[in-house]
Amino acid sequence: MGKKAGHAPLMEALIRYRDKENASFHVPGHKNGQVYEHEDIASLLQEVMSIDATEITGLDDLHHPEDVIREGQELAAKCFGAEESFWLVGGSTVGNLAMILTVCTRPGDILLVQRNVHKSVLNGLMLSGAAAVFLEPEIDTLSGLAVAPSTDTVKAALKAYPSAKGVLLTLPNYYGMGYDLKTTAKVCHAAHVPLLVDEAHGAHYGLHSRLPASALSCGADIVVQSTHKMLPAMTMGAMLHVQGERVQRELLRQRLAMVQSSSPSYPLMASLDLARWHIDVHGEEAFTKGLAAVDAFRKGLEQLPRFRLVEPTRQAKRGEEAHKDSSEGLEGERTSEYSTQDPFKIVLYDTLGVLDGFGLKHELETYGCIPEMSDEKHVVLLFTLGSTARDASHLLQALVHINDDIRFKKAAGEPGSMELEQHGLDYDFSTWNNDRMTAYSNPVEFGLQPISPEQIEVVPVEDSAGRIAAEMIIPYPPGIPLLYAGEKITEANALRMGRLRELGAKWQGVADESMLTIRVFRLE
């Protein structure tokens, strides 16, 4: 660690700002929190407000950094292995928007995009007026979950669309699943296009020997990371990293200025500075406690063979030995390229099929364990460098109680209770559209032209197969659109929407929050 890396330049500048107690004649209007001086209800926020400053002398400017923000971003670039890093105050969402707007500069520009992407990627396509060639992701044959397109799919699509401006992938996925991107990066570069990676869930990758390699180290040209997800920045704190000559840096700065606030939050930026500082100061030790906690959980779970984890085949085989009495079969073809798993992501399921993912999530919540998300089968639980052995013990105890709960023991013996287990790989275990499509689609044009009410009609979800969706359907989390406006609704889509509705999934972007109906284009 260099001498400078032990500093957090913006955080230190804000502490000096607070300690001087100068009279504020600038925004924000709370005046360092003094407007709430005698209000108990504001006491939690008052300390944060004492550094909630603006672009005054000594605190630099995110959109024209020359001082402490510039130094903080340079230290971030060095820490995360980038040539240049940019702090994001609108989460990975603004990073995804900016990188698409940088690469796709003219309406109709083609971008190769894996279909199971975050909604912000589709919004970026709309803003840029680009045309997306959607790439089919590989489906992990053991779990049924979508990962990312194979290198062969990327290569074939690049050959079919040599004018493509770039390739955008999302790795790891929400479940922590992924694979090594080196070969994919080489294929992209051989075709003279940049590889763009939404690495929102992998900000910690490459920072410890037990973690998968980062997208940057694999050769990606632009990478967006949510520093607030798996590293200790505040919510909405993210970074965009860039390297190489395939991306117009000046245009990227311009795009970031377009999509980011002109009044960025200083506490939020300071948390990005602090997260980088924490990693630089503590190195791999920063992850020791968290990894020990998740290891303790995995070891304890071996005593509860009813619950199992999604893992790459190699790890699953080890798990098979530890769960010899489990009824889960591991035989069969395993052709998925899924080969890396974030050790901090616990993707848990009930092998008896008594509790689906939403049900297991609900039961865990009743014991004070709050998961990140669930789908029809799985519950996703995050450990991070901030997790403790007590957290692991709490979660294990909750699972012991659920395992011993007489309600679920009875249900396990009832006819049909093994339905999920028996359906195996034919069942859809994802909030995303797992339908097999061709390896890559024809170009799909995106834009901002609104849909007029005369073009729309409302139909029951159960009757929507074969129609064209007129709204985006987004189970949230994870925020991956199951349908976008203009996409044909398949029978499987309609069934999945109904099933997710019955299981209690949350939705974004829908006109009917009950999801009994869906907006579709009128038939001509």
TrEMBL record:
Q: Where is this region: Disordered?
A: 312-337
Q: Drop me one GO molecular function for this one.
A: carboxy-lyase activity
What's the cofactor?
pyridoxal 5'-phosphate
What keywords are annotated for this sequence in UniProt?
Decarboxylase, Lyase, Pyridoxal phosphate
Residue limits of the Orn/Lys/Arg decarboxylases family 1 pyridoxal-P attachment site domain?
A: 9-389
Q: Where is the composition biased (Basic and acidic residues)?
A: 317-336
Q: Which Pfam families match?
A: OKR_DC_1, OKR_DC_1_C
Q: Which SUPFAM superfamilies match?
A: PLP-dependent transferases
Protein family according to the UniProt entry: Belongs to the Orn/Lys/Arg decarboxylase class-I family.
Q: What is this protein called?
A: Amino acid decarboxylase
